[in-house]
């Protein structure tokens, strides 16, 4: 993998030493770590090395974007079975690298090890560019709730793959390759978002995180969540209400945030609900009791 | 694990959000990532949860120290088998936390996942406090080579455990719980170290990294490497020349560095050799052809 590691504008010292050195002009650095474990988070018979490279990068870059920050540098630990083809690692790294390049982040370091279980550990660092972080705890009664990015597609693709189907290609591709709206994280921060997170556990579940951290109640209206014709078709074919994928499906990594008013919501975002005094999450005025989304692991 | 995560002086926003936020007054941050995989880097029948927590922290904090930096923040990904006792994870985290506290670093975030293979992914961040990083590439002909910290003890402990023995306790403890001289990294940087790394692959192997990166030859003299009476005893008992442990044993994580002169070598360091024009590493004037140290994996 080492030869694919590279430095960039934020990288003062790249791979090959005991540690990397990254420029942090802001005086603060945002950092998150995520594990992807074969069998828990991905299956090599369902996803290519490229798919998994994109997914590993996307879910970590989305965490940084969800703070309102711009991802700058990434470190990767790759634990590989002895029989992992070298080509797999190359394709994984190239795709990972390309996904990071979309946001200007660079792979600055890593570690490679043997393991019976293929495991990817990603650390992403980001820059707030002088802004305060957008945490989960800032939502206030009176705020509006808004969403940007694809939602429910990954869950639909997972449902299709789980039944052994191989089409429609577009929802399977959405499951394999999330496309989070990275740039909208800093946009939301600039527009005054009061709380934000990426949707990785499912919309209701992640809104619950915001509601709990902010000590508020969040209500959303399903009429404001658009189910496109493609998800309607897949829902009919599988005899599943596609709204369930939108409300509980994770892994698309759209961003959900609260804003002080409808007027402050950026153009690419859709208002889906409101913040009130109270606790928990209401969907169309009622509780929506659901386990979180947890690929391959069942309910949490 | 979450309840054991905590913030500290460098931590502006700790666990519980999409990402942590860490203070980086220097405008640059040092970052490294390391994996520890059960069966590759540790064995639960040889090492307790506490031992592994200390080892996981130590090897990463040593990487930061080896740049001349002070570790400030750490993120941990823990992939656990379903049957891992909760007490194991608690003891691991407490020991990890305590080791980080030795240097003032705080656990700011993490991720927990299921995996058939117990795996620990550690990311450590550090602060150079305004100093330039001490890389592997700055050694110059005429420099002296110096070492600080315990060397060969972990390898001796590993040899003892490998033969099924349970004593002497002191070398087994050294294998289980490395005690890198963290503070000496910044000290060496302040004293003008020209190149530095921690010894994790074995002294000869790691000096080779410096020699290659700096395009110099490094010569060391075994007469300057002190083998204490305990390692002499263990060597006799196992019929092994203990010098081999000092030259090839990794995992003690002492620091080795080059300095412009003997006068600039800090008090806690021992001069063990010299830098010349040329390439490679000479031990007592001759090449020392050896595989690297690679616990449980055999030669690299």
What is shown here, in short?
The structure is a homodimer of 300-residue chains. The first copy, chain A, is built from 8 helices and 13 strands.
Question: Any overview of this molecule?
Answer:
- Two copies of one chain form a homodimer.
- With 300 residues, the first copy, chain A, is of the alpha+beta class.
- Chain A has helices spanning 49-65, 86-102, 153-162, 169-176, 184-190, 203-214, 229-238, 242-248, and strands at residues 11-13, 20-23, 28-37, 70-80, 106-114, 119-127, 144-148, 195-198, 217-220, 255-259, 270-276, 280-283, 286-287.
- In chain A, strands 8-10-7-11-9-12-13 form a seven-stranded mixed sheet.
- In chain A, β4 (70-80), α2 and β5 form a beta-alpha-beta unit.
- In chain A, α3 crosses α8.
- The longest helix of chain A is centred in the N-terminal third of the chain and has 17 residues, at 49-65.
- At the A-B interface, β2, β3, α1, β4 and β5 of A face β2, β3, α1, β4 and β5 of B.
- β2 of chain A pairs antiparallel with β3 of chain B, so a sheet runs across the interface.
């Amino acid at each position: 993998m080492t030869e694919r590691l590279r430095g960039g504008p934020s990288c003062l010292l790249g791979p090959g030493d005991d540690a990397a050195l990254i420029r942090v002009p802001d005086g603060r650095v945002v950092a998150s770590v995520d594990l992807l474990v074969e069998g828990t988070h991905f299956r090599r018979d369902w996803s290519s090395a490229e798919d998994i490279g994109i997914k590993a990068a996307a879910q970590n870059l989305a965490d940084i974007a969800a703070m309102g920050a711009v991802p700058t540098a990434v470190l990767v630990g790759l634990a590989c079975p002895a029989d992992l083809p070298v080509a797999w690692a190359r394709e994984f790294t190239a795709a990972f690298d390309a996904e990071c390049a979309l946001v200007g982040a660079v792979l600055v370091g890593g570690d490679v090890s043997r393991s019976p279980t293929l495991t990817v550990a990603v650390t992403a660092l980001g820059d707030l560019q002088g802004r305060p972080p957008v945490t989960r705890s800032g939502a206030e009664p009176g705020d509006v709730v808004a969403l940007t990015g694809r939602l429910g597609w990954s869950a639909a693709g997972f449902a299709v793959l789980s039944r052994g189907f191989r089409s429609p290609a577009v929802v399977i591709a959405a499951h394999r390759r999330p496309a989070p709206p990275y740039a909208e994280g800093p946009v939301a921060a600039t527009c005054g978002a009061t709380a934000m997170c990426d949707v990785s556990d499912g919309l209701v579940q992640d809104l619950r995180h915001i509601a709990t951290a902010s000590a508020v109640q969040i209500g959303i209206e399903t009429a404001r969540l658009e189910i496109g014709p493609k998800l309607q078709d897949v829902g009919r074919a599988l005899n599943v209400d596609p709204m369930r994928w939108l409300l509980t499906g994770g892994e698309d990594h759209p961003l959900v945030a609260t804003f002080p008013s409808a007027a402050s919501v950026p153009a690419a975002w859709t208002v889906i609900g409101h913040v009130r005094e109270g606790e928990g999450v209401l969907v169309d005025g009622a509780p929506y009791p659901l386990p979180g989304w947890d690929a391959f692991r069942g309910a949490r």
